[in-house]
């Protein structure tokens, strides 16, 4: 096992001799480590094992930061990182796509695309935002630099324009799921394969140009799953490159700093206004000048260029550029997201460079606050269920029918576990006005309205629904919504939508079960609580038949010990379901039923 610190030193040391010098150093390191681990099956190589001359050899100025928890494992057959395999979150994403396709494959293509896009954008944002919080290791930084160069070449040659954050996502994906993971079997099937071949032709053509070059430069091999997923990822690049009077560049020092700012601005403006250059901390003004000259030459900029930079001598950069660049240039430092947004908005409106310069002189003076008018955000509702995304999709479908023609709302079906673990995704919270969450269990998201599905069915949440939609619908509109909910959210229709079971049969069994529980536990259940049991137990039986039961419950042993009498009664009462449907109800499922009965 080799520490990342040792790998970092080997990667950045400048060797005066040939490959033999590196080979001898590696042999020395291994010998030193083995001599200190003679009784162990594992050999741990650390900085103290390096030969003395390694500490004095010159190194590259750009020293990659490393993660202290990352070690490299060499076992004679394969090399991998000693972290847990990272493909599990990828396969969870694939599982959600399969569920969406299974449930909605007969819907209109636009509806299917919307649901798929929501999952894809959410996955991409999570990968970029999560991995960007960690310091990049040497291999990760190399992949990112290689991807930046490649995508710029393709953009210039084929007139494709890629968002800087998208390039960062591609780099993270390759590093995390291809280079960093040892072999993991692929999911048994990917249901969208034929659908992608039919509906994502343009994206697949783009991949034919890009993938061979990525494989050549990084010495990797993409499989069929990667090709299908990248077709979905590329479909999110919806910024159309219109004929602009002025081009925009954002240049910042650091890993993905410029890319992140450009990504936010381009998304909020709805068009790819800015191209980003992420420069190393040690980059000089000559390096920046060279990058700009290449951009102007290869991108065909003729009408003007706005350059936003984070720091550096603006006068010196401008003096270098005006000698070699024959287009009007407006340079500004003190780069920030708000500043870039305002300038990008002016560029969209076709504002001349001279006017942009005058306006920004007024805005950037000290002690002056510039407030940008808020852009009206689309409204959104999240639907959720702890039994999985399938139920959340069905709830979304019924709600959508209730609001059709009255209010334009984007629905985001999400798994309950994902909401409780990660909260509301940034792709929703930053770009939508979230009206509320509707589902079977409250994920306890701060400052967000939640409505229980059973309360909609029982009609006891009319006031809360009015609070959610009241600001956007008049009295007549709310009446229409309430009437539709009475029709769409009758108990029979809800169970028909949520399960494939015989609705009348399962309702009859649950009715008797509720009577038994009330008698044996001395309970008087309210209507919403009874409806909650109907919905939960119906979904539970279907999950058990499909063998996707819930297997986790917080502090299970302690909970069962504390409530052992009630657990015994519930287990005995629901045993009738095990007999009729030939299933086994696990203990965590019994505990969830207990909470529906007793928790407020």
Q: For the CA atoms, what is the radius of gyration?
A: 29 Å
Outline? globular
Number of helices: 27
Q: What is the domain tally?
A: 5
Q: Write out the strand line-up for the largest beta sheet, numbering strands in chain order.
A: 5-4-6-7
Structural class, by secondary structure, is: alpha/beta
Residue runs with pLDDT of under 50 for 5 or more positions:
61-69, 78-84, 239-243, 365-374
Report the sheet-strand fraction: 5-15%
Largest sheet: 4 strands, parallel
Number of strands: 11
Return the average pLDDT rounded to an integer.
78
**Helix share bin:** 55-70%
First-last Cα distance = 52 Å
Structure description:
The structure is a single chain. By secondary structure, the chain is α/β, with parallel strands linked by helices. Helix content is 56%, strand content 10%. The protein has 27 helices and eleven strands. The protein has helices at 4-12, 19-35, 88-104, 109-132, 138-158, 164-179, 193-199, 201-218, 224-234, 257-269, 285-299, 314-324, 337-348, 353-363, 389-403, 416-422, 426-429, 453-458, 462-469, 475-488, 491-498, 503-521, 527-545, 556-562, 564-573, 575-581, 587-598; strands spanning 2-3, 71-74, 79-81, 247-253, 274-279, 305-309, 329-332, 378-385, 409-415, 432-439, 450-452. Helix 5 crosses helix 8 (201-218), helix 6 crosses helix 10 and helix 21 packs parallel to helix 23. It is globular.
What's the layout of helices and strands?
Elements: E1 2-3, H1 4-12, H2 19-35, E2 71-74, E3 79-81, H3 88-104, H4 109-132, H5 138-158, H6 164-179, H7 193-199, H8 201-218, H9 224-234, E4 247-253, H10 257-269, E5 274-279, H11 285-299, E6 305-309, H12 314-324, E7 329-332, H13 337-348, H14 353-363, E8 378-385, H15 389-403, E9 409-415, H16 416-422, H17 426-429, E10 432-439, E11 450-452, H18 453-458, H19 462-469, H20 475-488, H21 491-498, H22 503-521, H23 527-545, H24 556-562, H25 564-573, H26 575-581, H27 587-598
Parallel strand pairs: 4-5, 4-6, 6-7, 8-9, 8-10, 10-11
Antiparallel strand pairs: 1-2, 2-3
Organism: Enterococcus gallinarum
GO molecular function, one term: DNA binding
Domain PRD: 134-244, 501-600
